[in-house]
């Protein structure tokens, strides 16, 4: 779909109205919400081929199948979108694929992940370099000819070779001159990439809300069994902070951010984290233990405890933290 497509222009028009005219927060009472969702739905259906069923009758195209398929963590899909798909599958309010698409649009807007399916399909972000298109190497000599390349492959899958601008939170240095030439701030490219690793937890959806409960000092003890002890100690004292947060998982560490103020509450590099986990006795509480230095050198540790009613979300977070630690263990 071209950036000059009427649907894209219509979408931008609604976005402008939301920014300039709508009261905050935007709710279902806003007259533009329904039209905005309908516009997104049209974009998702744009260009889909009409299909034949087994007896030869034509049937209207539907996009639920590919939207559902994209919601797979194996494809690198963020949990915010995966949880949307899971919630729709469990819902008994919608039975048709058309209804599922519409429900997905609403939930994904609330969880701020409506961009995910399009992003994964293209997997191209600002700052990335398009190296090859349909087998043709892109260089200065092809300036103005990309449309012709696309026309030749009309109706066929598009093959792209993309050089990613950011890897492990660091910008690919040879891209700096090109970014400056294009008027793109390198800092923006890096920050955009980091934002896309965020695991959202929104207060508007209790199934995904994460609450920071508090910390317990564990001294020099940093093994995983201390998590069980720390959670019990905190629950027995009855003293908890109950701060709504979301957790950003980056390449080299995590950030815990206040949902209301958007301020960083605390952050830890994976090398500062010694263990993470939860217990069967308190399955909706999870935690990690970290120090103020690499865990090899640290002598004082704290257990950071959280609560969520969403077990798959807890599992995904703990898995991400664990993988991050193992990955950075070998980073010099």
Automatic annotation (TrEMBL):
<dbReference type="InterPro" id="IPR037213">
    <property type="entry name" value="Run_dom_sf"/>
</dbReference>
<dbReference type="Pfam" id="PF02759">
    <property type="entry name" value="RUN"/>
</dbReference>
<dbReference type="InterPro" id="IPR004012">
    <property type="entry name" value="Run_dom"/>
</dbReference>
<dbReference type="InterPro" id="IPR011993">
    <property type="entry name" value="PH-like_dom_sf"/>
</dbReference>
<dbReference type="Pfam" id="PF00640">
    <property type="entry name" value="PID"/>
</dbReference>
<protein>
    <submittedName>
        <fullName>PID domain-containing protein</fullName>
    </submittedName>
</protein>
<dbReference type="InterPro" id="IPR006020">
    <property type="entry name" value="PTB/PI_dom"/>
</dbReference>
